[in-house]
Amino acid sequence: MTNVTLITGDGIGPEIAEAARRCIDATGAKIEWDLAEAGTDVMKREGTPLPDATVESIRKNGVALKAPITTPVGTGFRSINVHLRQSFDLYACLRPCKSYKGVRSRYSDIDLVLVRENTEDLYAGIEFEKGNDDTLELIDWLNRHSKRKIEPDAGISIKPISVAGTDRIVRFAFDYARKMGRQKVTSVHKANIMKFSDGLWLDVSRQVAKDYPDIEFEDRIVDNMCMQLVQKPELYDVLVLPNLYGDILSDLCAGLVGGLGVAPGANVGTKAAIFEATHGSAPKYKGQNKVNPTALILSGVLMLRHLEMTAAADALENAVAAVIAEGKDVTYDMKPNRDDPTAVGTQEMADVIIAKIRN
Ligand code: NAD
Questions:
Q1: Does the active-site annotation cover 190?
Q2: Whose CA is nearest to atom 40 of ligand 1?
Q3: Domains of the chain with bracketed CATH
Q4: pLDDT digits over 273-314, tens only?
Q5: Number of H helices, E strands in the chain
Q6: Distance, CA 288 to ligand 1 centroid (Å)?
């Protein structure tokens, strides 16, 4: 048996976690679930949205399937997702974007994987607020050392991109491509403008690519990449991107394949791998057995592949694809008309997926 932490989350989290767990168990995968809580529900009882027992369970098992968690507002707690990312050094965000027949989209033949760097770039959280003494001191220093001048009423966000940080994420993208039998890695940047951050990213990408002669390598400037993804997405395979471009382009790519309801993801690092849907906790649907469990179930498929339980992963993905293609036993958001009375609930959609796995 492989031990996996199941974080049930809050909002719609517990319902979709239950649906995903049942579908994964139906594949016969030998998984022992370690149930753990995080989010607003447990906070009401224990006074913290992220109990030590949950962190300890992830640390012990190294693999977690996580349902969405509401970011507490005005409680003094920062985002649990950010906390988990930093605690476990989850440096790679993996976002596969694949067309499934039956999902409404303008495109029908997309099979892309985005690999986003999670720790550096403009999202490193190194910011200087307009007017603060530190900010004025920094502006003064910069104005003395740079040809370009910064106005004294500017706010500043810093964009660090390191050799070590770039090397490990580009290597992650190539290793993933190799493991999954993919052909090409495209490194995305704006090296023509930001020579010392994106330029470094591009140089390191090229260096790392030399260690993977079996995988094709190319680079694209981010603005051109956006146009290409809209016009010719079928030309791309694995994309590796710094944090900010990765955030923006993963939503663009989710849009290419039909949106949040079917967008799985994973945050992978040196100490753990956490698999989760791209969407949030949709609190207004809490407890209604209404929302689509597909994104979390497909995150479970990614998890099974990570655990090298390939037969179980294939069985689950094929069952989900078949149910979506039939379009009958799916949740309201997958129907052409959202008020369609034939839409089924979260658990009923899981039941039909389970029946397909067993057939
Ligand atoms: P959201 O993704 O929770 O919901 C936006 C809308 O998308 C919903 O109102 C609903 O119409 C639709 N939707 C989302 N998931 C769906 C599903 N499975 N089936 C059908 N429809 C679905 O985004 P939000 O409202 O911006 O965020 C709500 C909370 O979730 C916030 O506190 C946010 O911080 C948090 N969040 C958490 C995660 C995470 O845990 N990884 C990710 C994103 C947002």
A1: yes
A2: 68
A3: 1-94+263-359 (3.40.718.10), 111-120+161-256 (3.40.50.2300), 122-159 (no CATH)
A4: 999 999 999 999 999 999 999 999 999 999 999 999 999 999
A5: 12, 12
A6: 15
